[in-house]
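Internal ticket #5521
Category: modeling
Description: The requester needs a full-assembly model to guide mutagenesis choices. All entity lines are attached below as received. Residue total reported by intake: 118.
Assigned to: D.W.
Attached entities:
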Amino acid sequence: MKSKLFITLAGLIMFSLLSLWAGKQQAFAQVPPDILLEDTKPQPPVTFSHKSHATEKKIQCPDCHMNPKLFEMKKGAAKGKMKMAALNKGESCGSCHNGTKAFATKEAKDCAKCHVKK
Ligand code: HEC
Ligand code: HEC
Ligand code: HEC
């Protein structure tokens, strides 16, 4: 009797752990569409592309969303925090766009790589 209960419980626990794991995998399996960042006046807006970062440059989801947690997995979560002053100090996009890992945010010649006129 006791062992039957134990097996049922163990099965339930296994099942919930598996579902949790599958949920995480699924969250990381879908590459979201482009995100338009528009608090850029007087510069033209910036388009952040998951396709070019995650798919083409093969940057892993956790590199931006877990350790370190540069960005929430929620569009608009960083609203008001992505200022050039912060980027130029190496925060947010600036943790890579610093002239070492990727083109910098401080060079006049590179502004238009992010701020693209439509
Ligand atoms: C180079 C950094 C970077 C990488 C790599 C990256 N993301 Fe993102 N992700 C962002 C940014 C920036 C945002 C927007 C955050 C904000 O607006 O505050 C975002 C937002 C999201 C959102 C919310 C989208 C919405 O419409 O609300 C999801 C979901 C997401 N990312 C999933 C992923 C997955 C899955 C991967 C891997 C395939 C991934 N991200 C890789 C930077 C990244
Ligand atoms: C790596 C991409 C990137 C580069 C390169 C870049 N910016 Fe930005 N810029 C952003 C993002 C992201 C925002 C914030 C958008 C938002 O929050 O909606 C922003 C915002 C701005 C703003 C709005 C006010 C502020 O202080 O944030 C100005 C002005 C601006 N950028 C000017 C520039 C100039 C000038 C350059 C070149 C010297 C430059 N940017 C280079 C990504 C970039
Ligand atoms: C984890 C590192 C990383 C972060 C964080 C990151 N980038 Fe990038 N990004 C790259 C690399 C690498 C490239 C390839 C270009 C290069 O080698 O200079 C790139 C290329 C780009 C390009 C040119 C290709 C394209 O998509 O059109 C844009 C624009 C850009 N990034 C914008 C952003 C913005 C805006 C943010 C912040 C919301 C951001 N990046 C955050 C690493 C990063």
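Resolution: model delivered.
Comment from assignee: The pocket of heme C (ligand 1) is lined by residues 28, 30-32, 35, 48, 50, 53-54, 59, 61, 63-65, 71-78 (CB under 6 Å).
Ticket closed.
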